[in-house]
Design the sequence.
């Protein structure tokens, strides 16, 4: 137009348009290039990662018998929005055998946002969980009647035998600690809580898979994302082959019924644990599924402490079974020779009396056979006093230290660190420090610690350590840390004892004599060529503990056993028969002595031991 | 000569604009398909979904555009005032014929389709304004010359806002301010508009915020300081004696300084201090203007007084006049309320959708946020989210640049007119498109409050598409005839 004095304003208006677009481009640059938070927020919005649970590895015994497997359990989910008007609540309750009040209560729980934060009318909500197949059988057939209802499958542990609960352990829901420690877990996951399930959790659990799904603004699943490009399939857990012999394990548990005690069997050549029984125990099935927490609490409150694995966690004075080690250490360190003789005055002996009647003087083989207390006191004393006491008790204390080191080389007084047993106690072989503290450096002599000579006093050992000790003697100078995984080559965990092989002959001979002439003779089976040593451990809790260690056959030992029956009395009476029957079972495949088996198995020594 | 000028309409029409129109419409249509795309969807032509319906609207708009081009250009001029009258009647009648759709009474049901008369009103108002202001005897010289144009846009805007409860559609009429500006309205009006918005934001956003020192509120103090600055600026500009102005500035600074020091012992009501300063300056202004006969300064004083009133009125308007949902939208925008599940939901989801598109976007039909319907109204007012998510930064600025080119092209067309009426109409068209673009994209990007107006050619909806088609193609028809038109 002509004479347009506002001509320039076209540039202002164009400038406004350019300015607006420029501002918006800067804003877009911020939102789409600089701000990184939106990508995650978008994924959180739209993507649901649905976990695919792998099946947990199975557990077998050494002969390939299935011990632990998976059972399917079911949970019922409902999508509220899909439950129409004609939905028959009464029929639904009937098919699940619940009443209307329970139904209403569960629905109220689901809808309660405080209890169920992820509630949405459009997504499946868990209505009931951990149901058995029989619980959902009726519903499954009538499922078409109830729109919105889904049955989902998960797995729980199940057990072939009612045995080995302590060893196998159990599986339970992960706690906050696990969640913090291991990013693998999510709330509601299961993991091994104790026993083998815990030790081999990584191997057994496998690897969870994931399915990335898209959900819309209302929470409805709309199919897989990127055609499943990001999905991962679940990897099933690896099976675990254990060293257990389930028949032997069940026998041990049967024989311990009605008593508090434990029995451990080891294959000496390999350190493989054949049986690890602790009583009172429980049926592993009670710690599975929805009953788990209730039963766990009950077990926790049982005064007989069934949850404690006595085979590895309880410590006892080894009593006379310790004489085998005493003999070996004294021989090795030059305190005695096989020909050394000591006099025994029977019950009149001082400072320790002999509880058996035998000729005097005695040599080592007979002393073991007859469990002669004075002999081992003298041997112990002579070893410790070999160099005299010296200035400030130095030489004596040094001798004691040497003695202690050799004793501990049997695996006593410490936990087995290179093994797959989770719950262990270390037991105790008292240190010079302990005595220095109690009596002063110069205040203790051989006579002060005389009880150690016969496995009493401050010495404490677990049944597992006792069995390992038996295995070490059977092997004539070494042991392999006791373990439970058959596939694990534990040969690298060989521990050689600082005791020369020739010394074992006389001790093994003595132990053999125990089973022929001595305290074990009543329950020995001659054809199996057993060796053993009974023990009767005095303790402040009442009657003596009955203890037995042994192995068989003597020439080529296949099994080493330790049995402890608490407050039962003589080792020969209660522990020895259990051990010999276990050897019989393992070596011959059966227990021929049916009457003995029945008598021992049904004997109730402790009224409060419950059967779970 | 006349023969060549009066040539075939298909030769004279501005094909570049038609090209941009087609590009925007078709790209918009693809994005509507993307936004309403669900997993069981079959085809973009499936008439049960919105993309399919939009396709019919697009075909309809092409036919409409063709018809508008074929009509003799003089017809529009002839019919303008009749159309305006008819439009007013229709707008008045609409609330009584309408069904309530989300609180709005602007939709009339015509068989299977719903029409929104307000969308067509823009075009008719633009024609009317153009015709009125394009007369030979009309010259924009004083405020009085703007009374009729303001009435012409004000009446339909009020009807739409009050009776139809469509605030967004009514606000569009503010776009005509740019047209008036081009025709000679003072630039101060635009500045005052900006200042009014700024003052509004300051007094709302910081109004209730207590001062960290003394008593009073951040909002009032800020407004007062701004007014002090304006006063001093004008006094210095108009003052005959500069040293007096310096004394004035100095004494203001001293007053604030003393208040700050006193504040150490006694809490000073800073609101009142600054109020006193402003009032003193106003009085001084009045005195100076009367004494030196600089009456311009009287206007400045009046403006300041008005502003003080306005600042205090803002709160009243905000609390009492605005609807609760409008209030919350503003509060969310200004960051006064976090409400990601409620009023802030749209904006937050829009931000997530656009932001997650990153540089190249997620690819067409691959946008999870839009496909899974996290963004409400994503195929209508929030369609730009789909662009942002699926086409990324590249696609978004592409669309914005095409729009910019479109608007600049319209301004170019406006400037080549020899007929004032057509020029005014062309500026109206450009301003309306610019307003829609600014408000809609600004809202989606979280820079402006949520005001429900469509993105031209992109948003789903027949009425808006046809409304914009009418607006554009009448311009194209008039432009094609520019050689024939008498100046």
Sequence:
């Amino acid at each position: 137009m002509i004479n347009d004095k506002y001509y320039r304003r076209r540039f202002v208006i164009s400038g406004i348009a350019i300015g607006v677009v420029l501002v918006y481009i800067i804003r877009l640059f911020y939102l789409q290039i600089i701000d990184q938070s939106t990508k995650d927020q978008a994924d959180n919005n739209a993507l649901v990662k649905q976990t695919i649970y792998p099946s947990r590895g199975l557990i077998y015994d050494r002969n390939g018998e299935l011990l632990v497997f998976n059972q399917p359990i079911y949970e019922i989910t409902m999508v509220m929005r899909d439950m129409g008007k004609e939905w028959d609540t009464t029929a639904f309750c009937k098919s699940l055998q619940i009443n209307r009040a329970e139904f209403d209560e569960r629905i109220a729980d689901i809808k309660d946002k405080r209890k169920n934060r992820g509630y949405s009318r459009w997504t499946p909500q868990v209505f009931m969980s951990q149901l058995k197949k029989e619980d959902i059988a009726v519903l499954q057939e009538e499922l078409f009647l109830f729109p919105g209802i889904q049955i989902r499958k998960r797995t729980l542990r199940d057990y072939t035998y009612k045995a080995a609960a302590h060893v196998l352990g159990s599986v339970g829901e992960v706690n906050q600690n696990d969640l913090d420690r291991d990013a693998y877990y999510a709330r509601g996951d299961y993991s091994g809580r104790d026993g083998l399930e815990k030790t081999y959790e990584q191997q057994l659990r496998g690897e969870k898979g994931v399915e990335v799904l898209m959900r819309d603004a209302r929470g409805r699943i709309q199919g897989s994302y990127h055609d499943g490009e990001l999905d991962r399939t679940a990897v099933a857990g690896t099976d675990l082959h254990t060293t257990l012999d389930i028949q032997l394990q069940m026998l041990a548990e049967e024989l311990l019924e009605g008593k508090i005690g434990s029995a451990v069997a080891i294959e000496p050549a390999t350190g493989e644990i054949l049986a690890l029984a602790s009583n009172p125990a429980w049926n592993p099935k009670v710690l599975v599924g929805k009953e788990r927490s209730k039963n766990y609490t009950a077990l926790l409150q049982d005064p007989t402490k069934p949850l404690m694995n006595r085979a590895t966690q309880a410590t006892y004075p080894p009593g006379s079974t310790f004489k085998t080690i005493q003999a070996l250490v004294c021989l090795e360190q030059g305190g005695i020779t096989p020909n050394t003789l000591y006099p025994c005055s029977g019950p009149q002996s001082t400072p320790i009396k002999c509880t058996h009647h035998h000729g005097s003087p005695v040599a080592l083989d007979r002393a073991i056979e007859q469990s002669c207390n004075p002999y081992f006191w003298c041997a112990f004393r002579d070893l410790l006093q070999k160099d005299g006491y010296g200035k400030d008790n130095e030489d004596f204390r040094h001798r004691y230290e040497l003695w202690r080191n050799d004793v501990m080389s049997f695996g006593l007084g410490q936990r087995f660190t290179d093994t797959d047993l989770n719950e262990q106690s270390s037991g105790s072989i008292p240190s010079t420090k302990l005595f220095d503290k109690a009596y002063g450096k110069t205040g203790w002599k051989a006579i002060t610690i005389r009880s150690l000579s016969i496995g009493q006093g401050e010495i404490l050992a677990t049944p597992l350590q006792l069995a390992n000790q038996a295995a070490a003697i059977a092997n004539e100078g070494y042991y392999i840390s006791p373990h439970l995984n058959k596939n694990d080559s534990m040969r690298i965990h060989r521990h050689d004892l600082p005791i020369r092989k020739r010394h074992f002959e006389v001790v093994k001979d003595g132990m053999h004599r125990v089973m022929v002439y001595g305290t074990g003779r009543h329950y020995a089976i001659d054809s199996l060529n057993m060796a053993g040593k009974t023990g009767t451990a005095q303790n402040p809790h009442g009657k003596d503990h009955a203890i037995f260690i042994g192995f068989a056959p003597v020439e080529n030992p296949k099994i080493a056993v330790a049995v402890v029956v608490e407050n039962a009395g003589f080792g020969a009476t209660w522990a020895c028969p259990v051990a010999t029957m276990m050897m019989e079972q393992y070596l011959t495949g059966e227990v021929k002595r049916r009457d003995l088996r029945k008598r021992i198995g049904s004997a109730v020594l402790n009224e409060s031991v419950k059967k779970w | 000569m006349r023969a060549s000028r009066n040539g075939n309409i298909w030769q004279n029409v501005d094909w570049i604009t038609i090209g941009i129109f087609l590009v925007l419409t078709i790209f918009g249509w693809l994005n509507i398909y993307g936004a309403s795309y669900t997993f069981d969807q079959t085809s973009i032509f499936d008439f049960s979904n919105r993309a399919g319906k939009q396709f019919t609207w697009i075909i309809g708009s092409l036919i409409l555009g063709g018809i508008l081009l074929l009509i003799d250009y003089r017809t529009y001029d002839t019919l303008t005032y009749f159309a305006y009258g008819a439009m007013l009647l229709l707008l008045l009648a609409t609330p009584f014929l309408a069904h309530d759709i989300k609180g709005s009474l602007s939709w009339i049901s015509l068989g299977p389709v719903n029409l929104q008369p307000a969308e067509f009103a823009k075009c008719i108002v633009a024609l009317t304004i153009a015709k009125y202001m394009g007369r030979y005897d009309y010259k924009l010289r004083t405020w009085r010359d703007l009374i009729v144009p303001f009435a012409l846009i004000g009446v339909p805007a009020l009807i739409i806002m009050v009776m139809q409860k469509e605030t967004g559609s009514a606000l569009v009429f503010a776009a005509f301010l740019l047209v008036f500006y081009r025709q000679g309205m003072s630039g101060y009006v635009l500045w005052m508009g900006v200042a009014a918005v700024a003052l509004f934001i300051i007094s709302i956003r910081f109004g209730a915020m207590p001062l960290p020192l003394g008593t009073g509120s951040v909002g009032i103090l800020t407004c007062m300081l701004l007014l002090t600055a304006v006063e001093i600026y004008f006094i210095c500009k108009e003052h005959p004696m500069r040293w007096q102005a310096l004394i004035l500035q100095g004494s203001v600074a001293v007053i604030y300084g003393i208040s700050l020091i006193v504040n150490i012992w006694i809490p000073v009501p800073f609101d009142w201090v600054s109020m006193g300063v402003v009032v003193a300056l106003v009085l001084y202004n009045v005195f100076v203007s009367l004494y030196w006969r600089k009456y311009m300064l009287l206007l400045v004083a009046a403006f300041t007084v008005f502003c003080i009133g306005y600042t205090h009125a803002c709160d009243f308007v905000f609390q009492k006049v605005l609807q609760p949902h409008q209030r919350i939208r503003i509060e969310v925008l200004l960051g006064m309320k976090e409400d990601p599940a409620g009023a802030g939901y749209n904006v937050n989801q829009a931000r997530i959708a656009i932001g997650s598109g990153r540089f190249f976007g997620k690819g067409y039909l691959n946008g999870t946020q839009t496909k899974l319907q996290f963004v409400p109204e994503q195929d209508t007012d929030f369609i730009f989210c789909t662009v942002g998510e699926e086409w990324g930064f590249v696609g978004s600025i592409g669309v914005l640049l095409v729009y910019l080119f479109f608007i600049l092209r319209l301004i170019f067309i406006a400037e080549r007119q020899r007929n004032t009426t057509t020029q005014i109409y062309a500026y109206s068209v450009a301003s309306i498109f610019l307003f829609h673009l600014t408000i809609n994209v600004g809202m989606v990007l979280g820079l402006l409050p949520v005001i429900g107006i469509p993105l031209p050619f992109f948003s789903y909806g027949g009425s808006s598409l046809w409304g914009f088609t009418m607006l554009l193609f009448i311009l194209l028809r008039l432009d094609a005839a520019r050689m024939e038109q008498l100046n």
Observations:
- Chain B touches chain A through 54 residues (CB under 8 Å).
- The beta strands of chain B are 99-101, 104-110, 113-115.
- Chain B has two domains: 2-185+331-480, 192-321.
- The first helix of chain B runs from residue 2 to 5.
